[in-house]
Records
---
Amino acid sequence: MLAKRIIPCLDIKDGQTVKGINFLGLQNVGDPVELGRRYADEGADELVYLDISATLEGRKTFAQLVEKIAAGINIPFTVGGGIGSVEDAGLLLKAGADKVTVNSAAVRNPQLVSDIASRYGSQFIVVAIDAKTIDGRWVVTTHGGKRPTDKELFSWAREAEERGAGEILFTSMDHDGTKNGYPCDTFARLSEMLSIPIVASGGAGSVADIAEVLTVGRADAALAASIFHYGEIAIPDLKRQLAEQNINVRI
């Protein structure tokens, strides 16, 4: 059985790692390369860097940063944020990223998933899905959960897989930032219906939360930001406690 992965997520704005709630009240939490190297040294299995810069200049800075990250860390990393074309994806992959993640652009234009997978291979594309429950139904959203779409979580996840996505990164906007755990039944249903890995995001507040989504929720990986950035849970301690619960992780 494949080991479960622990993935710190770093939000990047104009070349610096930042953290806030729904992109508000952003605080600088460190140099992206140094922070990534530290997490790699502590035992992170992968990293995700998300560019939240709103300007074209910020995007250029991000592409240059990806080259520095690739030179500075020795574990796989995924990059995303504002990728709207095959060319955008190609630029970041050529800069050294191992995978790209697409979200809003894929919702607007599902063919983008097919095109990136066709050009670069399924192993290079992660489809990120933000969804929230509305009237008992999981509705796919954009703009940090503020804008509902006409897509439904399970059908969109299946379509993304059929179009060539290599992984699904699902964030429950109902749970994101709450640190109250994950909707494990929903993750388990996704895992049951898809054959590609599922990465769980949004809601981690404790080792128990992560253990639950990796077992009950059957997620293949857990992604988190604040708990790592603010030292609430150290990656070595997290992995040791997961291993003590017979969860297969790389120590």
Note: The longest helix spans residues 56-72.
---
Amino acid sequence: MDPWSQPPAQPARGWLAAALALVLAAPAAGQSLRPSSASLARQNAQAKAHDFTFLRNAGHLRYFVDRGWLVPVVPNRDFRLKGASFPYARPEVRLFVVRLARQYRAACGERLVVTSLTRPRSHQPRHASAQSVHPTGMALDLRRSRKRACRRWLEKTLLYLEGRRVLEASYERWPPHYHVAVFPKPYARYVRSLASARRAAGRSHLVARGESLWQIARRYDTSIRLLKETNGLRGDVIRPGQVLRIPPGGG
């Protein structure tokens, strides 16, 4: 089928393709943000499982935008765009950017900077891998902050989400940035599961042994700052058996 008339997202081609995509999405042992051929393979497996088209040029991209298969990514108070030639992405990628940027700004006090989103093959840099999924609209690049605390928060969060098998992330050194390939369907399911967890918890959480404020904030899609304010905590120390109230308005 001609890709210009092909919808960007179709069900995976049977249970075998879905199973293969799930296996390839599993993070390797000794998980890190180091670029690897295995990571590229997992990204491509997800693109194929989603039946995504690799866009050829700007006209091809515009065709997808006009049909709503790619959506505008509009900056807000939590993030800005810098150098992104085509400010469009898959709807789930836009959702990821908005959610991550809100949490990032709450955690370290600065706006997230998105440097690249969808790039058709005609606009890929010369050094780009032939396996890059930027032409599918499921990838983005994030600027590396000068603040160590911001870098640590972002890297920890990306590794956490990679461990949940909803994305693949790597740190690229030239120029310094984080490359992220979001897996749309798994990520959408993950976001829905967070909403379900908040409803089931009745807006409170019983602290388990070994849990940290960071882990609880991630589970309920809120920030450490709001958790501490809601519960009158002055430090980061919590105890097993302690009941924490979950801040309203997460999501």
Note: The helical segments are 14-25, 37-49, 58-66, 91-108, 148-163, 184-201, 213-219, 224-231.
